[in-house]
Amino acid sequence: MRRDTRVRIATEVSTGTPSTPVLAGTFEWDSGGLLGGPDELSGTPKNLFGLPNGQRLPAYARVDAGVRRDWHVSFAGRDATLSTYLNMQNVFNRRNVFGLLETPLGDARSNLFSPGRSLTFGLEWGF
Fold first, then answer.
1. In the chain, how many domains are there?
2. Torsion-angle region of residue 76: left (phi > 0), alpha (psi -120 to 50) or beta?
């Protein structure tokens, strides 16, 4: 049996990213993390409010970290891999703004904040 262990750290930093406000209640986003998890986005561009990229977002900084362990084994005469991983998203628990929401009447604007610190554990089997 052979084992491989990897430690990964990913960071994203930006300032003044252009953004377009979206209509409140019509947009949903879930980040999978910088280490390669799936992002989920729902909504429609017809719900944009204002000029495309007409607003600028504040500075954004995020760090994700993870460890992955692979065990290479033989199963039924075939090479197989059993993998486990533990990822921490938003290590420093920053409240980053990644978008803007506008009310239907256009009288109030609020920020869309990225999720706080979270852990993801996974187990995978491949052959």
1. 1
2. left
Q: Which of 96, 99, 90 is nearest to 27 (CA)?
A: 99
| Structure token digits, residue 7 | 């430690």
Alpha-carbon torsion angle 115, 30, 90, 13, nearest 10: -110
When the pLDDT of each residue in the chain is averaged and rounded to a whole number, the result is 83
CB 34 within 8 A of CB 12: yes
Interval 11-39: pLDDT, tens: 999 998 898 887 776 666 676 677 766 66
Whole domain around residue 52: which residue ranges? 2-126
List Cβ neighbours of 25 (8 Å cut-off, separation of 6 or more): none
The secondary structure of residue 21, as a DSSP letter, is: -
Mean pLDDT of 67-72: 93
pLDDT (tens digit per residue) in 87-115: 999 999 999 998 888 877 766 778 888 88
